[in-house]
Design a protein that fits this description.
- By secondary structure, the protein is α/β, with parallel strands linked by helices.
- It is built from 27 helices and 23 strands.
- Strands 9, 10, 11, 14, 15, 16, 17 and 18 form an 8-stranded mixed sheet that branches.
- α5 crosses α6.
- The protein starts with 13 loop residues before the first helix and ends with a strand.
- About 10% of the residues have low confidence.
- Bound molecules: adenosine-5'-triphosphate and magnesium ion.
Length: 768
């Protein structure tokens, strides 16, 4: 064939090159972590564009996170001189949103429909349950909301819900009422974005045909984590045998969203249904050194259900994987901070250091240690910026400015800050609105008396804001709203309100950043005139931008509000500065860092206790650990702690079983190996849990009796001894266990109750 046409392809190995330049046919790249799947996918897009096989508008690419989409666009625009703004690259939700914005009418939605995030959707479900006068104990809003999302992800509308008994019949009715309420209020939840756009294509043949002709190339990253509906959506957009090229990349060993309905079986279905000729395997890992890779390979080999593939590297063994044991979660955090500082002083940018954890709740201790040490850090996930209460209040006002009939937003802020509108008046208002089928905004007249006057004043406030912000910039709109709504004054008056005010100010910055990023008011990269497509048209004026698809003019406020709903997972504060990266293992998927700490490697935490009851659950935890390990390029730390305060309870931990599954030769213990699990007796609580068959502890044989002879302990404590503790005051030792560093005591502090304390941490003074 012809010589490699250009520089794009130079940095690929032969297998990768073959994958990138595959002819336009269905293809599946099945390969392990760090083998260059994402690089292959991105390079293929660039290659298709550069060789003129497709125009920027003619392909669609699905990434797993907004962050990944942004990175892909950044890489593309670095590789090629073109405007990537109009390209269909994004998450499933982002792309569905775009489709529905363009075809809202056919989709049966109002033009300015709003997106409910997870929490909003729970409160919407709650309102439905209340209106139906059902018992919230039996129909727990959060669970019902999960149920509805699960139905939608299976493609089921209320009529399709299997009604086995009175309970499921009732659930179907709630689902039905919820759907009606959302429709009335012009809002859609995340699952609805997917299902609605699937139905849009299914029910509008002409539209589907249009997109099938348009998107000659469809590319999907992280295919192993697609759910049933997402796969159906893809099939609708690019049906098997339809002549489009569908290029999917994935790794069965990194399927970690089974708990949320992801179906690793989609890969086998894809191979069969699309008659994939050859499955491309990439076996060379370019990310990590040998020891890190050995650890990953050794661990994942324990899983039984695998498609089977191997990873090798030529990078050499590198450093051993370091294992660290702490006495408490605080000590763990402290050690990480110090170690990270050392790495940074040694020349590593902070952004190349990641601290990973299994559960969001673990981040608080880490955050406070970093904060106290004055080290910049950035949290992904967790309480996301756009999910903070004050930010949501502000967004609710903005939504009302955009659309006064948005009842969810109306209810959120009608009495926040307080305006003398009580629960009874709200109920009256809601009833009136329901009876007349109108919005709350329209039904204010139905409430009489003082509350009625106050409601009318609230309506005036919103309408006035609408009037006075016409034509203003996004920044100006937000500042006016913050003032006029009373939000700023409210938080100023609150002595703990400083952080919230900062977040509100950050909202203005986020809006500003959005305006620049999305190209509002910004010149776009010039293209030759004959290649100009609607999405590349320069912004009109400073403020309005035509929708890429329909040419409809959308206000920057509307665009920003959508962005705020979709932009989950990015803590805007501190964006840009060199900061240590904190995130759950789930949100680390696809990313890589020079140095990685995996924290909290304890039985019950990682693997998580909820997963231990069945083999599938445990295998998913193991894949999660595999994902975590393979994020590291050069240095990897595995860390566990003997005690941890979680959800208000101190847990006494046993190190994760994953340690027994990792190849000994790749590890190095940097704390003395205490043989913690073996020689240490279990605490009574653990013994009890074991006896009770708790999954927390299911695997270990009973500990042998301590070998330590009865030498006089150095702590000078004995059962029955009176002690003093700085926090809990006076108490009496009830139990003593362990020895040396690991000694712990159960102390009865009377008013404060009984507590287990690690003596190496707790300062206990004997009282004579
Ligand atoms: P994951 O499964 O974790 O998503 P992946 O298979 O998508 O991993 P990439 O992120 O694409 O892997 O690549 C891993 C790293 O290896 C990246 O830093 C990438 O730039 C680098 N890389 C990939 N292929 C090559 C190559 N041929 N030569 C040099 N570096 C490469
Ligand atoms: Mg990848």
């Amino acid at each position: 064939g012809p010589a490699v046409p250009n520089a794009l392809l130079r940095h690929l190995n032969p297998e990768q090159l073959a994958a990138v330049t595959l002819p336009a046919q269905p293809a599946l790249i099945l390969a392990g972590a760090g083998s260059g799947k994402t690089r292959v996918l991105t390079t293929r897009i660039a290659w298709l564009l550069q060789t003129g096989q497709v125009s920027p508008g003619g392909l669609l690419a699905v990434t797993f996170t907004n962050k990944a989409a942004k990175e892909m666009m950044a890489r593309l625009s670095a590789l090629l001189p073109l405007s990537v703004r109009g390209m269909w690259i994004g998450t499933f939700h982002g792309l569905c949103n775009r489709l529905l914005r363009a075809h809202w009418k056919q989709a049966g939605l109002p033009s300015g429909f709003q997106i409910l995030d997870a929490a909003d959707s729970v409160s919407a479900v709650k309102r439905v349950i209340k209106a139906m006068k059902l018992d919230e104990e039996r129909f727990v809003p959060k669970q019902v909301s999960w149920f509805i999302a699960a139905c939608k992800e299976e493609g089921k509308r209320p009529a399709d819900v299997e009604q086995r008994d009175p309970h499921t019949r009732q659930l179907a009715l709630i689902y039905q009422a919820y759907e009606e309420q959302c429709q009335r209020e012009g809002v859609v939840d995340f699952a609805e974005l997917m299902l609605r756009s699937y139905e849009l294509l299914r029910d509008h043949e002409a539209l589907a045909v249009h997109y099938r002709q348009r998107f000659r190339h469809v590319l999907v990253d992280e295919f192993q984590d697609t759910n049933r509906l997402q796969y159906a959506w893809l099939k609708m957009l690019a049906p098997p045998g339809g002549g489009q090229s569908v290029f999917a990349v994935g790794d069965d060993d990194q399927s970690i969203y089974g708990f949320r309905g992801a179906r690793v079986g989609n890969m086998a279905d894809f191979e069969r249904e699309y008659r994939v000729q050859s499955v491309v395997k990439l076996e060379h890992n370019y990310r990590s050194y040998g020891n890190i890779l050995d650890a990953a390979n050794g661990l994942i080999a324990r899983n039984s259900r695998r498609l089977g593939k191997n990873l090798r590297t030529e990078a050499g063994p590198g450093e051993p994987v370091r294992v660290h044991e702490s006495v408490s979660d605080h000590a763990e955090a402290q050690w990480i901070v110090e170690e990270a500082q050392l790495l940074h002083r040694g020349g590593l940018p902070r952004s190349e250091i990641a601290i990973l954890y299994r559960s969001n709740a673990q981040s608080r201790v880490l955050e406070s240690a970093l904060f106290n040490a004055g080290i910049p850090y950035r949290v992904y996930g967790g309480l996301r910026f756009f999910e903070r209460a004050e930010v949501k209040h502000a967004l609710a006002y903005l939504r009302l400015v955009e659309n006064p009939h948005d009842d969810t937003s109306f209810l959120r802020v009608v009495n926040f800050p307080a305006r003398g509108i009580g629960a009874r008046s709200i109920e009256q208002l809601t009833d009136a609105a329901r009876a007349s089928g109108r919005s709350l905004h329209q039904s204010v007249g139905a409430v009489t008396g003082r509350a009625g006057t106050n409601l009318a004043a609230f309506n005036d406030l919103i309408l006035r804001l609408r009037e006075r912000t016409k034509g203003l910039t996004l920044r100006e709109i937000i500042s006016r709203m913050l003032d006029a709504s009373g939000l700023l004054d409210f938080y100023r008056a609150d002595k703990d309100g400083q952080e919230r005010i900062e977040n509100l100010e950050e909202l203005v910055n986020a809006a500003e950043a959005f305006v620049t990023q999305e190209g509002f008011g910004k010149e776009v990269v010039a293209l030759p005139v004959d290649e100009l497509r609607p999405e590349d048209a320069p912004a009109i004026g400073a403020e309005l931008l035509p929708d890429a698809e329909t040419g409809e003019i959308v206000s920057p406020l509307a665009a920003f509000l959508n962005h705020a709903s979709l932009e989950a997972g990015d803590n805007q504060a501190q964006a840009g500065s060199d900061a240590i990266q904190l995130m759950t293992v789930h949100s680390a998927k696809g990313l890589e860092f020079d140095a990685v700490f995996i924290t909290g490697l304890e039985e019950g935490l990682f693997p998580h206790e909820n997963s231990l009851s069945d083999a599938d659950g445990l295998e998913e935890e193991r894949r999660l650990m595999y994902v975590a390990i393979t994020r590291a390029r050069k240095r990897l730390y595995l860390s566990f702690s003997q005690t941890r305060l979680l959800h208000g309870q101190t847990r006494y931990n046993v190190k994760s079983r994953f340690f027994d599954e990792l190849p000994e030769g790749a590890l190095k213990w940097i704390t003395p190996r205490t043989g913690f699990q073996g020689a240490m007796a279990f605490t009574p609580r653990q013994a009890w849990q074991q006896a009770a068959g708790s999954p927390f502890q299911a695997r270990k044989e009973p500990a042998p009796p301590p070998l330590v002879p009865k030498a006089a302990p150095s702590h000078g404590l004995s059962v029955g001894k009176a002690v003093f503790h700085n926090r809990f005051g006076e108490g009496v030792v009830v139990t003593l266990e362990g020895s040396g560093e690991d000694t712990r005591a159960e102390v009865n502090f009377g008013r404060h109750g009984r507590k287990w304390l690690a003596l190496s941490v707790a300062k206990l003074t004997p009282i004579d």
